[in-house]
Amino acid sequence: MIARLLDFYQGPYEGSPGESEHFNGPVLHIFERDQLLLSMQITAEALQKNELSVDMMTVYEWLWHRGLEFIERENITAATVVIITDRDIEKDEIITDYRTLAFRR
């Protein structure tokens, strides 16, 4: 299923973090047919957490794959924002339910 998703969705696989005056970490956007479908955001604190084995060079790939999993699992069809904090990570995995992450403000 991931192969089909990779053919269907597009987005920055690597690159500079999205700029936001209200957010302090990397942001990755996934688009479907030129429309924003998912914004994956991870805080700087989560990125620095010892249990997460990604850094600024690999975080976008990590976010990309987790974002595709979220799109598939939750059948995302409208623009959604996912915010991952340090309390949501354990041993390289997101332990908080994706729906909670998506609707957290």
Strand order within the widest beta sheet: 1-2-3
What is the total domain count? 1
Order of helices and strands: HEEHHEEEH
Shape descriptor reads globular
- What separation lies between the terminal Cα atoms? 30 Å
Per DSSP, the total helix count is: 4
Calculate the mean pLDDT score and round it: 78
Determine the strand fraction and express it as a percent band.
Answer: 15-25%
Task: Give the class from helix and strand content and strand pairing.
Answer: alpha+beta
**What level of helicity do the residues show?**
25-40%
Overall radius of gyration: 13 Å
Give the oligomeric state of the chains in this entry, treating copies of one chain as homo and distinct chains as hetero.
single chain
Number of strands: 5
Low-pLDDT runs of 5+ residues are 1-8, 12-21
What summary fits the major beta sheet? Answer: 3 strands, mixed
Structure description:
The chain has 105 residues and is an alpha+beta fold. It has one domain. The chain contains 4 helices and 5 strands. The chain has helices spanning 2-8, 44-48, 59-74, 98-103; strands at 27-32, 35-42, 80-84, 89-90, 93-94. The strands form 2 sheets. A 3-stranded mixed β-sheet has the order 1-2-3. The protein has a two-stranded antiparallel ribbon with strand order 4-5. Strand 4 (89-90) and strand 5 (93-94) form a beta hairpin. It is globular. The model is unreliable at 1-8 and 12-21 (pLDDT under 50).
